[in-house]
Specification:
mainly alpha, Four Helix Bundle (Hemerythrin (Met), subunit A)
Length: 194
């Protein structure tokens, strides 16, 4: 693989994850397949991990790539949520109140970030990485095994924690900044700039 092709790999992995979202929707609507859902979910998880690792290793983790990574995550997981709702709304209805509250919190976060910074946050917090892992587990249980239970509950409440931390970071930071691992890092960053 040439250097130029290697430098395109993080972008390709991010775009793959974004493209897998619509694939999941088509699968749900036209030809649900446990194996195909499993492949999509595993590829999305691996691409989410390796796009950042490779970009940082190559020194090309730009602001634009980090923001695109966040957008790809949103596209993929909204598509997965649609697919899970379409196929297993009976299971998700058991979590309707907390799921609705989590979606509302996500929208509040996006609105706050756009109002304050003029763009979406792209913190890539450790809590968001944990949420991504619990989302993978929850969607895998729903779409591959046709069950949910505690895995869906875990994903929802991990999402609350990540969103509250992200909102707190947005309150603390005076200007937009990418890659803030925790609220503690944001507080320390603000103190160093004061």
């Amino acid at each position: 693989m040439t250097i130029t092709a290697l430098h395109q790999l993080p972008l390709a992995l991010t775009m793959l994850r974004a493209a897998l979202g619509p694939v999941m929707v088509v699968l749900a609507l036209v030809a649900p397949s446990h194996t195909a859902f499993a492949v999509c979910l595993v590829l999305a998880l691996l691409s989410d991990y390796f796009d950042g690792v490779i970009a940082r290793r190559l020194g090309i983790a730009t602001e634009g790539l980090r923001r695109l990574d966040s957008v790809a995550d949103s596209v993929f997981y909204l598509s997965a949520l649609f697919s899970a709702w379409y196929l297993h709304s009976d299971l998700l209805r058991q979590h309707l109140m907390p799921l609705g509250a989590l979606i509302a919190l996500e929208l509040i976060r996006y609105a706050f970030d756009y109002r304050k910074f003029g763009r979406e946050a792209s913190y890539h917090m450790w809590s968001s990485k944990l949420w991504g892992l619990t989302l993978f587990i929850g969607f895998f249980a729903l779409l591959v095994y046709g069950g949910g239970g505690w895995t869906v509950t875990l994903a929802i409440y991990t999402g609350f924690f990540a969103d509250f931390e992200g909102l707190a970071i947005s309150f603390v930071l005076p200007k937009w900044q990418a890659d803030i691992p925790t609220l503690f890092h944001a507080i320390r960053l603000r103190a160093s700039e004061a």
